[in-house]
Structure formats: C-alpha cells, structure tokens
Amino acid sequence: MATFPVINLQNLDGEERAATMEQIKDACENWGFFEVLNHGIPHDFLDTVERLTKEHYKKCMEQRFKELVASKALEGLEAEVTDMDWESTFFLRHLPESNMAEIPDLTDEYREVMKEFAVKLEKLAEELLDLLCENLGLEKGYLKKAFYGAKGPTFGTKVSNYPPCPTPDKIKGLRAHTDAGGIILLFQDPTVGGLQLLKDSEWVDVPPLRHSIVVNLGDQLEVITNGKYKSVEHRVIAQTNGARMSIASFYNPGSDAVIYPAPQLVEEEKKQVYPKFVFEDYMKLYAGLKFQAKEPRFEAMKAMETTAPIATA
Fold it and tell me: What is the pTM of this model?
C-alpha cells in the first residue's frame, strides 16, 4: 500500500520545487488528500488553538455530549447506529459574514484566536489553490475566481471533538462521505487518530502529525477539473481511548457562484463530463444526501441543467 502523502511546503522555495509540485500533483490525482508541513502557520499559534479548543470542549461541551448520549441511549449499543455520529461540534462562519460574535460560551481569547486562525487558513487555502492551478495549467488565480460569487467565497470552520466511545464497532465518529465544497484544511489532534480515507477500495489511516494541516479536495474541485482531481470518501472511526480534536475549515464557492468545468480541462476528444450549476443548488441537494454516493448528486445537477440552463453574464 502506498504511503499517505506528507508534503513539506518549505521545499517549494528551493531546488526541490519541481519534485514538490509533482508530489502535490500525484496527491491530488491519486489520493484527493495530503498533509502539509511548514505551511507558514506558526507552531506556537497552533498549540494555542489546540489548547483553547480542548479547554472549551471540557468547559462547555463535554457535559452536553454526555447528556445527549444518555438521552439517545447510546451507552451500551448492541445494534449498529447508522443515522447519528459520535461527535460534538459547533460551526464558525467567517466569510462572507462572520458569526463569531453570535457563538455563545466562547472566551474573548478563544474568539480572537479563532478569528486570526481563519485569516491564516484563508491565506493558506488561496496559496494551495494557486499551486493546484499551476499543476493544472490554469492561470494563477483561476480557482479562487471560480469560487467567487457576488460576495466572494464562503469560508467556515467546523470544530469537532470525538470523545472516547465504548462501542466504536456500533457507531462511527463521522459516517463516510465526500465534502461538498472546494478545498478543506484540517487541523487535527496530534496524537489521537481516527480519520480514514477510501483508496482502492481500502480504508487508509490519515496519520496524526503535530503542527500539520491535512488538505482534502471537495466535490466542486472535481467538477471544475472535469474529474482530473476527485473528491474522496472519508470517515472518522470512534476511539475507545482518548478524545480527538478536529478543526476543519471549508473554503467553498460563494452561494451564487456558477460552477462548471474549466474549458482548458475539457479535452477535445472527451466532452464535458460534469454539469454546470449554482453552488447553492448543489448544497441544497447535498444536505439530504451527504452520506450517499456523490455520482447521483452530479447526475441530478445535470438533469436540472438540461431543464433549466443557467444564464451567465
């Protein structure tokens, strides 16, 4: 089994640039996932994000999760549960408008740190999109522009904790799915694993590495690249020991952005494989079908496209 791709972004600045770009290309084409080191976000800052996230869970979320487990009778499961996940989460929206001020229970320090974290991740997401453009032969800024609606991109963070689970064979931390959006940047627990991706019909562990950022590609990048890059199914396996922290930030198209394959990537002998649609319409469909295969979602958007073509300026 090939080794999960871990890429040192520092090597982009020297004579190893070509080899590093090739690593990124291979990861995008064959994995849909990779892990980056030396990404420009200071280690001590990531340590602060981790500390404050874990403190917030202990203080504000842990008891609520225990009450939920008790109310849903999830303690001593004997049959498999397929309509719930063993996770405790909250969502932060950054762009186009922040909801940070509306989230209860966040300390002032945590609020400020997460605002700064979002700025750093937005910058990293846009840098990574440009590296993808370079590998795809697209002009610099093409993917960022493709994601822009009237108010720019949509950007938000899902903060999750996966507490220890007594019956990990009966309930998933998070059920298998592909991500609907654009490019996803994950800052995950440095010691407790559980994230897996599906490669060649086998589940492969995404290794926890301190101070790394895990990158994965969403459905929209599959569409824009006309299938050259693919979003990949992944899941979280609940663990019996140790709570796992997961902070996933989603750099997605604006709700009114029109998504379609880049003309340069539609080869002459291969017609456009993927549909053209408004991102918000895709998200409405995804909301009910997240834990199902993505192909029927693309087909449904194709059917919508033929009945109601999108007018673009």
Answer: 0.94
